[in-house]
């Protein structure tokens, strides 16, 4: 199975970048399934709306994952609660609207997409390790193709979860730091791993937000409004191929920036 | 000026990896100066000792930077206090033993090496932005070649500091997360930047520590002793070249892992 | 039912203070049950041992609760795993040795003692609110007398939990900050509440630890060993009386310090 | 000198409570100076406005201290920048508008009022210990009457600062947790100390905010708007008397709640 995943889409520049490049990415990678993290796609970089989700579906994004900004736009509650193509972190507390994983058709099989939040330096969510165990038990033998977006800050927590799930899922791909890491590998048992996939959003920015605002925040320690600047954008993603048993056979990082219009780095098992 | 920098060296496997590869790295890159982050070189991954510092100097590491584990080995206090080749984070409180930056000869010029700690998700250190300002004022026109090791957790804080210092230092290279990022670039004014350079240490590990211990910590939330495992190791670093005015002209990531014995990724201005 | 509860016992001075005063407290309050938080009773202020637990049982402490230092002494694992008089926080992850609540006879009835950890500024534990719900369901109609030690840092989290459980438990008494608060009250439905009961330990100290060490830690930001000083001690506790339906009818703070040898402050419904 | 201090005033109910009780408090305590923490007086509990500051001055509050919510109301920037009766935390970074301490006449002498922020579980401010040292040096022998509002979360940090300044200031009174502690004492050298003075605001609330909102936040981990409820209010403060050399001779807690309309607890040296 051929899986394309795009990192946190930030604001309008991120959305535009995805819209512009998706046709080329599809032509190049011929994915059976495209997933994108949409937690920052709202104009202010916080949350998602129904209209913005639709704009991603329009360019052939199949599934949208989220993160700690899941519920930042009030109007998205309906979307998150009902749309089977939207996956919010599974370790939000019991009773949270929406679904923590979804199953869908891709290629000539099925795939499960899971979203989890880390806790280190993040918030008070349920245990992501045990939540993963529970979901894998629920998935059972419905499919061996399992993609997990681990939305977390700490490298240790992401590597630990991937190691814990090694051989039990097809891929653990980190999101949230908005900076792509260079450590793609395939763990024993065929689990593709990357600590962070990076983001799709403004290039001349601080992790997608206006440079001046973020620097001002660090300098002043005062409440500061972060804004998503306009201008040139970048796109980061990852392409994973699995065999018929759901084992990853390759993982390839994707990075498109104004300076380096198309760059991939691969890892073949 | 040609500068080689190696990320956090973790335990005995990290030290061995550096000892094994330094001759080849020197042959290949012909650095005028080699810097390494030594905050994790003690056998348990915490701190440094005089003997271990000497072992790095023996393989032609010129300068050792540190981080949040600077003072974890009591016996290193003397070393840190007196050795001009050791740089501890400059934003430890006033009166802290040791130096926050050093000036040394490299090639046919001078270079300043600065070490700073981030505060986001870290500890209660002095403001790294204003500390950088103060040090740059102290350096004045002694040299335009300035290398800064920004030891920090949060991507936003690292990118913000680099952006803040853009055009005022030759390079801002992040350390601490132990995972190399793929975002090397040269910021306006000639400041080479990489969010994190990664580490030198055990490959089959969780950021350098024994997998079982780290996973057990996340699963049990109990006090857990982290140990540095033996076995195959990896090395991560970065090579930067500056022009005569101290502006970066290239930055090249270095990654040596058991699977990919030598890989570099460059960025040319 | 008459319930006496003593706050975190810190080190040898805390133990001695409890040993010295328990006879007088028992004479004065005639408790049906005495509970003490023992998470800091080890000589270094971290954790508990079997011998130290026995010394509390010897002076008629009936039940020992714990906190974030529960597992700091390795040798206590056996004690915590098997002794029905020891209650460790119930929201440690599933599979943790020991019990999160216990039922015992007191007076002519039964009482349940629950221990929970807060998460704000603490660690990654399970949700204390839902854990409380689950335990209350398990207790069912076995008893209406329910005492809860909420071991937490943030005032908001403690008040929120008490408010959430108002009318469902007899008492929610906070521990962990080692400073007694002055906000005792009885919430609607008969739930006695106090944000923090304070500690039993060295008086001339910083929350039970040697003043110089703690100040040095704040000044230097270096690793610092905290020690429990010898010298005069203080004792803090709370006395609660419930009616036959398990509703609190009174809550009275107890504070014994070198300057004010016996002081209580009551709140009658 | 006779000093009256009121804890964090929360919203309209807090303001009304202060307006209602100040005449009686003044009659009873005959203060030479009244200080109040106004960081939560805005209707939503975040920050202050010029009009609200004036309403406090109108009821004979002389000096207003602040905290981590200092800059939450944009329109207060002018007030904070220019009014000598407003003191914002001194350890905001250099260049922050406003003043970190003020000197004013009280009785037949002078008094300095200092405001500091803690860092543990708070934000990235300058070192409160060294900032206190610097301010005390600036005050020099202008006055020996020095009142310090330590706005901090962690008990250890507050006790440590008070211990550090013992004998150098007249009083260190904690704010921020909104719950009054019961540990008033006079430290060696004549420094009155109380870990937290508590707040003036809604009684049937969670630290001043609507119970349902705060509980919902803990239960859902979603973004939740905290509101200040109307209804009965409480007032918490402290009264300190110093001798002519600026040494505290007494400290008396003040607590006025719907259930206990007037209660004080004193400590005489
Ligand atoms: Fe994001
Ligand atoms: Fe995120
Ligand atoms: Fe490190
Ligand atoms: Fe580090
Ligand atoms: Fe404790
Ligand atoms: Fe504790
Ligand atoms: Fe406040
Ligand atoms: Fe506050």
From TrEMBL, chains A, B, C, D:
Gene3D superfamilies in UniProt: 3.60.21.10
A Pfam family reported for this protein in Swiss-Prot or TrEMBL: YmdB
InterPro entries: Metallo-depent_PP-like, YmdB-like
Name this polypeptide is given: TIGR00282 family metallophosphoesterase
